[in-house]
Amino acid sequence: MRTTRRQFLSRTVYAGAGLWVFGDAAPGDTASAPAGRRRPRRISPNEKMDIACIGGGGQGYWDILAVGKRDDIVAIADVDFGMAYKAFKAFPKAKQYKDFRKMLEEMDGRVDAVTVSIPDHQHAVAAMMAMRMGKHVYVQKPLAHDIWEVRQLVEAARKYGVVTQMGNHGTANNRFREAVEVVWSGAIGQVREVHVWSDRPFWPTGIQRPERHSPIPPTLDWGLWLGTARERPYHRAYHPVKWRAWYDFGTGTLGDMGCHGLNLPFMALRLGERMPMTAEEGQAPSAQSTRGAAARQKEPDPVLPIVVAPEFSGDINEDTYPTWSVVRYEFPACGDLPPVKVTWYDGGTRMPTTTKETIAGLMNAAMESAIGVQAAGGARTYHRDTPGGSLNESPGSPSEAKSPDEPLNPPNGALLIGDQGTLFSPDEYGWSYRLLPKERFKDYKAPTPMLPRVTGEHHAEWVNACKGEAKTLSSFDHAGPLTEMVLLGSLAICVRERIEWDVANMRVTSLPKANDHLRRDYRKGWSF
């Protein structure tokens, strides 16, 4: 009997996080719940971990290379052996699987940690199974496909005591962390307005479901690729690469890049404190728990809802996300935090003229006397790794510079507009920043660090944390609320209406039908 929405909502906020992932879709699959709680094995800093990787093609290949630099890749699972060919070749000793469930069962006694780098609709079932077995997990962004799945993963990570990290690698960059501290220090004053834009998508969007099907590639197990998603014939419009556009598989451009672009303002403005999924004492660090001397008593949970209002291109339909979108978030005040409006823009070159003019106007206002430099060929460049995050001349002659007042217009960026200045980050990850207007901050010195510093890239931070060395800043305690914010935008686009989100009760109060999208019905053979 189908669970009613009322029954579902009453019991799913943090409930059932330890449930088991199983399936009967694959021959020989016999997964069952292990007795009691599984705890991760203690690993010393000088010891090598045994890592199993779910997803070997695309981003999965790069994740495997990164975590396999110092540790042992003992197994790789990918539903398409053709896509995973390079990973298999790079780690020939790793056992090869198509079904990650079978891999985890057979390798349970050996594996210490698991990476999950597969389409969004399979993230939660794979990560939950691994955590339930006491494995540390690294999960690509977004953390999950549905908001209900996000809540389950956050609670499970705490319950099983595993080290977690989401693949938004800007978080493990010291320039990102310094930018967060700059905002925390009050250098730009109170921030009530944020704008973030992306040059994605690069995949087809706004298209209808194919009427015909394509021959299934001989290297692909289509049933396993579908996993939790509804049954449909294979078509190359879905796999490889193009799945992000489809509601059943991906979370759109916002789901793809929001966990990157929104990450800096989310942490810097402590938006997680308005979304009560923050870490308890003793858990992995979050933005609020690592603020050192700046930490304060947590205020009561906010009463006002988070408001999310979408705009989108006219090609939106029942199957795919639109070509471009604008999503406006309104976060309520919380304790000493003022209300803040966050606007997300995507579509790249296909953005409407009004959006491009809006961003250009915002940049003009923020830059004021800041100097931009035009490089050869007419393109401006921003040197990400320069000390202090300053805008520097490209390797061209001074004569190539345009007017000092002309705004920089990067394809990806973020503006955090305060009442004393603006923090501008000109990339999709928050890897660099500049304080504007230039003259006001020409002698500015960064504040004393409040967040721990890293010596390697973000995969190394996760591996080191698995071995007891420090902690991951993008643990599920941070990644969960961030992903929920992102998915609220995807939800508003999906239902095509403004929504009001009751965080504490995990429900949309303004549009009851939107609650039907908080959790999918999984295809037969797949469940928590």
Mean pLDDT: 83
Sequence stretches where pLDDT stays below 50 over 5 or more residues = 1-36, 278-297, 369-407
CATH class of the domain at 5-169 and 458-476: Alpha Beta
In the CATH hierarchy, the architecture of the domain at 5-169 and 458-476 is 3-Layer(aba) Sandwich
Structure explained in plain terms:
The structure is a single chain. The chain is an alpha/beta fold and about 525 residues long. It has a domain at about 5-170 and about 460-475: NAD(P)-binding Rossmann-like Domain (Rossmann fold). About 25% of the residues lie in helices and about 15% in strands. It has 13 helices and 15 strands. The chain has helices spanning about 5-10, 60-65, 85-90, 100-105, 125-130, 145-160, 175-185, 220-225, 250-260, 265-270, 355-365, 460-465, 475-495; strands spanning about 50-55, 70-75, 95, 115, 135-140, 165, 190-195, 305-310, 325-330, 340-345, 415-420, 420-425, 435, 500, 505-510. It has a nine-stranded mixed β-sheet, with helices on both faces. Strand 4 (about 115), helix 5 (about 125-130) and strand 5 form a beta-alpha-beta unit. Helix 5 (about 125-130) packs parallel to helix 6 (about 145-160). The protein is globular. The two termini are about 15 Å apart.
Give the helices and strands, then pairings.
Layout: H1 5-11, E1 50-54, H2 59-67, E2 72-77, H3 85-90, E3 95-97, H4 100-107, E4 113-116, H5 123-132, E5 136-139, H6 147-160, E6 164-166, H7 174-184, E7 191-197, H8 222-226, H9 252-261, H10 263-268, E8 306-312, E9 325-331, E10 340-346, H11 353-367, E11 413-418, E12 422-425, E13 434-436, H12 458-466, H13 476-495, E14 499-502, E15 507-508
Parallel strand pairs: 1-2, 1-4, 2-3, 4-5, 5-6, 7-10
Antiparallel strand pairs: 7-11, 8-9, 8-14, 9-10, 11-12, 12-13, 14-15
